[in-house]
Amino acid sequence: MKVDIIGDIHGCYQELLSLLNRLGYHIDEHQNLSHPENRRVAFVGDLTDRGPDSIHVIRFVYEIVRNQQVSYYVPGNHCNKLYRYFLGNNVKQQHGLETTVAELQQLSKQEQKEIQKKMIELYENAPLYLDLPEIDAIVAHAGIREDLIGRKDKKVKTFVLYGDITGETLPDGRPVRRDWAQHYHGDKWIVYGHTPVLEARFVNKTVNIDTGCVFGNKLTAFRLPEEKIISVPSKQPFVEEKFHSY
Q: May I ask which residue range the UniProt record assigns to the signal sequence (predicted)?
C-alpha cells in the first residue's frame, strides 16, 4: 500500500488539484481519481473554512472518499464545527466558518441541501483517527498520544480534534497546547496537521504537515512508505503571525 497524506486544505481547492497533479494523480471529467501506482490519498481534516472554495473541496472529497472509496478522510475541528452547524446547532460563525456559510448562501436551496447531506455523511462515516497498519501509520487531525491509540472515547475525540490542550488560553484567544510529539516514542508514524508551521515538522516518529496553505505558505503531502514530503505553493496572501514556532 502507498498513501499520500494531505495536510489542512481549508477551502484551497486549486492548490489541492495542483498537489494531486504533482503527486501523479489523474482526475477525469467525472472527478474519478486514479494513480498509475494505485496510490491512495488520506486527508488529515479541516477541509473547509477561511479559504476561497470550501464547497468544491467538500464535493470532491465526498466523491473520492464516499462514492469511489479510493481515499481516506479523518475530521478536523473545523469539520466538526461545520457538521454541528449543518445539524442546526447554535455555533458561532467565526474563525473561518463564516466564509463557508457565505459560500453556501450563494447556492440554490437544492445545492445547499446537497452540500449539507454530503458533509454530514462524510463526517458521520469518518473514523476519529485512521490506523493504516500496512504503512505503519496513524492519521489524526491534531495528533494522538501513544497511550490513547486504540481508544475512541470523549477524551480521545477532544485530543484528535484540538490537540493536547491544557484548558488555558493565550492572550489572542488560542488554546495553550502541550507539545505531545516530544514524548511520543512509538514505532508507527503519527501524521497530523491542525497547527500551521512553515515547514513540515518532524519530531520522533511524528510529522505535522499543516503548512498553512490558507495563510499563504504551501499545501503539503507526506508520502508513505517513501517518507517523502511534497508541497505546492499557496495562491493565498501570506499571513506571518498565523504560523506556530515551537
A: none
